[in-house]
Fold:
Amino acid sequence: DQQVKQNSPSLSVQEGRISILNCDYTNSMFDYFLWYKKYPAEGPTFLISISSIKDKNEDGRFTVFLNKSAKHLSLHIVPSQPGDSAVYFCAAINYGQNFVFGPGTRLSVLP
Amino acid sequence: EAQVTQNPRYLITVTGKKLTVTCSQNMNHEYMSWYRQDPGLGLRQIYYSMNVEVTDKGDVPEGYKVSRKEKRNFPLILESPSPNQTSLYFCASSPLRAGSGTEAFFGQGTRLTVV
Structure:
């Protein structure tokens, strides 16, 4: 049973518009959440994170929102650029150390 | 440059032939782990290590072994590979958590095919 879910395997967005990637989790013990971006033939790279004590974290064009009561987080990319086309993984950590990853969402930003 | 290095990047092997995938990090991180990435399943943890000589099973440890004799190295060993271990493997490292959390740094990946 997946503890971290990304229900959209893929998403297409026009360049300049907003991309919204969603992630749901089931384990209420998770206290830290991260988004990773992965290009083909490369390892995942860290994008942005949020602690469970916050509901929003912003870094340039990227904003992560956390709704603890709904066990839901989302990544907003505004404006979307063709270079943002990649697979995005949502990850969660509990009070220990281990990362639990979602299955990923492939984002395509169309010029 | 801070990095996690995996070797080899690509490997084709036959069933039952022992192999080792190496992983090395130059950031003096305590925590290292191995993941496999399969379509629709994301990244699943195989084994992890909190420090030298300390290793533990992740979610999918069957058919794998690891060792952590030095802080920088964390090799993944397949004693008798089988076709269901055909996958894309990633090694990752991070400092042990202090406070709110920390990111993990990933290697470039090793694509393994077992025929």
Observations:
- Residues 42 and 91 of chain A are 18 Å apart (CA to CA).
- Chain A touches chain B through 29 residues (CB under 8 Å).
- Chain A is about 0% helix and 55% strand.
